[in-house]
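Task 17 of the worksheet. Students: predict the tertiary structure of the chain below and write it out as structure tokens. Keep your answer in the requested format; marks are given for formatting as well as content.
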Amino acid sequence: MTYKLIAVDIDGTLLNSKGELTQTTKDKILKAVDKGIVFTISTGRPIQGVMPLVEKIGLDIPLITYNGSMVLKANTMEVLYSRTLENSDSRQIYTIGEDWDITMMIWSDNRLYSNKDNDKSNYYSEITKTPLILVNSLDEVSKGVTKFLWYEDEDKIKKFMPELMERLKSETVSVHTSRPYFLEFVDRMASKAIAIEKLSEVYDIKREEVIAIGDSYNDISMLEYAGMGVAMENAPEDIKKIADYITKSCDENGVAYAIDKFIFGGSI
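Model answer:
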């Protein structure tokens, strides 16, 4: 099979456990792109949290952000695909979060809002490199919500999940964790798989010509969608089970290893 598009998650996949992009991985990406491969970053991060990495890679590449809610070109910021939550869903999510005293991060129009000014919200603002706008009501968020992120302790998230699914009676919301302490809500038509499908249409690439590489639960849709779904060795076991191939860990240049195997037919 000749693969034409590679979609790669960031944390725990493209970056090692220290949050670094190794020279080995960067060189392999550049080599693949030089061969004509379309390389895209597919992440739950906002645009602001991706651009420093794009600059390190040194390429003008398409980006899948907010877990598939927005697809755009890095250089021109041209939006290729975008989905926001239904207003009724946003209000439901916000109300439940307030009832349970949750620290909520709200992405709208590439701005970051929160209902709390605390260590969690300030840390999230820092890692996403986006100023925090404090709100007392969802009415203060003027445009549609791209993504809600609840930032809470892992045990608390596990405890309230059954009741959350009981209260959130919506067929248009997708709920998943990107990390054990990040519970994310996006429109059901916003997923990494759908985003890759939309991006593939732009480049006239078939599903079977796609490689997706990831390590977490928000990567499941793209691993299942791609012609070759690759899980990192550091991924949870149930993620590995759905993958077509398991590459080396993020601390062993697993992305570079997979690119070399499936694009160049060798091993680094």
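Marker's comment: The chain has two domains: 5-82+190-263, 87-187. The CA atoms of residues 11 and 267 lie 23 Å apart.
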